[in-house]
Amino acid sequence: MQVRDFCAQLIQTFFTANIKHILHVLLVHGFLFLFSLGLSYIAILIKEAQQSSVFIVSQSASLLTEHKKEERRVRANDREYNEKFQYASNCIMTSKYNNITFLPVNLFEQFQEVANTYFLFLLILQLIPQISSLSWFTTIVPLVLVLSITAVKDATDDYFRHKSDNQVNNRQSQVLIGGILQKENWMNVRVGDIIKLENNQFVAADLLLLSSSEPHGLCYIETAELDGETNMKVRQSLSVTSELGDPNNLAQFDGEVVCEPPNNKLDRFCGTLYWKDCKYLLSNQNMLLRGCVLRNTESCYGLVIFAGPDTKLMQNSGRTKFKRTSIDRLMNTLVLWIFGFLVCMGVILAIGNAVWEKEVGALFQSFLPWDPPVDNFLFSAFLSFWSYVIILNTVVPISLYVSVSYSLKTPILFLKF
């Protein structure tokens, strides 16, 4: 009876003396919750503004860099002369990873997702025994599972990029070497080589049209891979080179082209051909760009001006980047809001713990003392906050990103049937 009366007295004392204090704490916490939400929204707006400003600055810097670059010089049938400029080869690479960089780069990309970073932080907290209320095994298993599934998907996508690059780099092209047409892989084509194209063949690099089997040096190309247009376009060689239709004559051609540096302007080309003490102006009408297809023309010859990553097609494609869709940004925002709610819940429970330890828990110190690291009710509330964050971690959906990613890819598999 004495124990029951003592407990009843404690409960009555707690609820009568601290109800106003608890209401005050809840009101203050509600204000802090709204204030934190406002700060998170402002942070998102500032981040978007910074991204737009960085994009504008980068575009301006790229334009300035382009103007500062030196002009390009290319001499026909002279690999030794062209190699001293260290021009890019005709080998392309659109993949993001290799065997060495896959693991670190992929993990860096995955931890840009807010949920993955949160669960990594949670795993670190669970390694601290004073605040860990759950085993670290309950967090590392789902985290590793999600990271593995995403890594397998990214590795599969990059494998097909490697496969596509290998197919393109090993396409055959006829290159004029020593007066003889020899079959070479696209990756072995160099700036300054003269290439023969036949009907329905892809253009291996950005070429200056020298001659054609059609009258007046005309040829017809399809630029669907460049601009999506399927109608035929006409290109014409210079009249002074249109008569060099024979491989023997082309082998003696030693003209030098001085032109603009590599850029992504599909409808512009400025250059000059110097040959036999004369100079001839060049324009986009004299160029065959990589990705075009020769149509309705038996054959033509072209001089390689830009190769590989310097071609206008590759200049427009750019480097393969980690894509972030609007859905990814929305999910990151939602996870931040959920995390804010979790923090608020942890703060409320920690405050309740501090109040209880100060008003009631102190009465039990004689037979139920605090653990050695804890010496006051404030430190106990601090440790309780992190413990509640660990306990309530399931409110943040770690599998949300994987579910959305595969829900977008599954319909593509059905479309292939």
From TrEMBL:
Alphabetical UniProt keywords: Membrane, Transmembrane, Transmembrane helix
Xref: Pfam families: PhoLip_ATPase_N
Domain P-type ATPase N-terminal, chain residue ranges per copy: 74-140
Gene Ontology molecular function: any one: ATPase-coupled intramembrane lipid transporter activity
One Gene Ontology cellular component annotation held by this UniProt entry: plasma membrane
Transmembrane portions of the chain: 22-46, 134-152, 334-356, 376-402
GO biological process: Golgi organization; phospholipid translocation
Protein name (Swiss-Prot/TrEMBL): P-type ATPase N-terminal domain-containing protein
Species, as recorded: Sinocyclocheilus grahami (Dianchi golden-line fish)
